[in-house]
Design brief:
By secondary structure, this protein is an alpha+beta fold. It has one domain. The protein contains 9 helices and 4 strands; from the N terminus they run H-H-H-E-E-H-E-E-H-H-H-H-H. Strands 1, 2, 3 and 4 form a 4-stranded antiparallel sheet that branches. Helix 3 crosses helix 9. It is globular, with a radius of gyration of 18 Å. About 35% of the residues are buried.
Length: about 240
C-alpha cells in the first residue's frame, strides 16, 4: 500500500494556493470541472484536543494494538501540526486530511485537488517536467507548462495539481492517518516511545528510499517541527 500512496512533504500555504488560482485565471485557463471522485476543497479546522480524541477513538480499528499512549498520540499530533500548518498551529486542514496524504488512484478514491506552484532553476524545471511526463504519465500530479514571468529571475515556475485524500469526518480522517502510519513499521517503535526525531527520520525518503518515505524534504526540518509540537502538546496533557 505504501507504494500506492504519495505523501506531500509540506502542505502549501494558503497564499500559494490562492495565488495559484489567480495566476491560472490570468493565464486564461478555465476552471477544471469536478471529476467523479473529486470533492470540493473544504476547510475543516480542529483543535489538538479534537484530533487527539479522534486518534484514540479509532486507534484499535485494525491498525494498532493496545491503548494509545500519550507519547504516541503527541508524536502524531506533532506530525499533524507540521503537515497542516497554515498560520494557526495545527488547527487547519482540508477535507479532514490530517497529514497531507495524497492518492495515486484519483479515479477510484475520494480526493480534492490543490494547485502547488514550485519555482526551479530553468534547466532543472524543463528537465523535471519532461521526465515526469515521460516516466509517470498516469501519475495523479498533472504537470503544466512552465512559466517564466511569474518566477524569480533565472527560474521557471512549474505548475502541478496534487490530489489529496478526502474524508467525510474527523474520525475517518484519523483512521486514514493512523492506517497510513501503520505501514511504516520502522517508525512505529519511535512513535510509541515518544521519540519525534527518530520517528521523523524513519519516515524520510533518505531512510526508506526514493518515493518510499512519507516526505522528501530535509528530515531535520521535519524532526524539529514534530519535536516542538510534541513537547507543547505533552506539556498541555493532551
Amino acid at each position: 500500500m505504501v507504494d500506492e500512496l504519495l505523501h506531500f512533504s509540506r502542505a502549501p500555504r494558503e497564499a500559494e494556493v490562492e495565488g495559484a488560482k489567480l495566476d491560472e485565471t490570468k493565464r486564461g485557463r478555465a476552471p477544471k470541472p469536478l471529476e467523479p471522485f473529486e470533492k470540493p476543497r473544504l476547510h475543516t479546522p480542529a483543535t489538538a484536543k479534537d484530533v487527539a480524541a479522534a486518534i484514540r477513538r479509532v486507534w484499535g480499528e485494525g491498525y494498532m494494538k493496545g491503548p494509545a499512549s500519550q507519547d504516541a498520540v503527541c508524536v502524531l499530533l506533532g506530525q499533524w501540526g507540521v503537515e497542516t500548518f497554515k498560520g494557526v498551529d495545527g488547527q487547519a486542514c482540508h477535507n479532514w486530511n490530517l497529514a497531507g496524504i495524497k492518492t495515486a488512484r484519483p479515479e477510484t478514491e475520494w480526493h480534492y485537488r490543490m494547485l502547488t506552484p514550485d519555482d526551479m532553476p530553468e534547466k532543472q524545471a524543463e528537465a523535471y517536467v519532461a521526465a515526469q511526463k515521460r516516466l509517470r504519465p498516469s501519475n495523479p500530479l498533472a504537470f503544466f507548462d512552465t512559466d517564466k514571468n511569474l518566477a524569480a529571475p533565472g527560474k521557471l515556475r512549474v505548475w502541478q495539481i496534487a490530489c489529496f485524500r478526502s474524508s467525510e469526518t474527523l474520525d475517518s480522517g484519523a483512521k486514514l492517518f493512523i492506517g497510513t502510519v501503520a505501514h511504516f513499521s520502522a517508525a512505529l517503535p519511535f512513535m510509541h516511545a515518544g521519540q519525534p526525531e527518530a520517528y521523523a527520520n524513519a519516515l524520510s525518503d533518505q531512510v526508506m528510499g526514493r518515493n518510499k518515505g512519507w516526505f522528501n524534504a530535509p528530515s531535520t526540518a521535519y524532526q524539529h517541527g514534530i519535536r516542538v509540537r510534541f513537547d507543547k502538546y505533552k506539556a498541555a496533557g493532551i
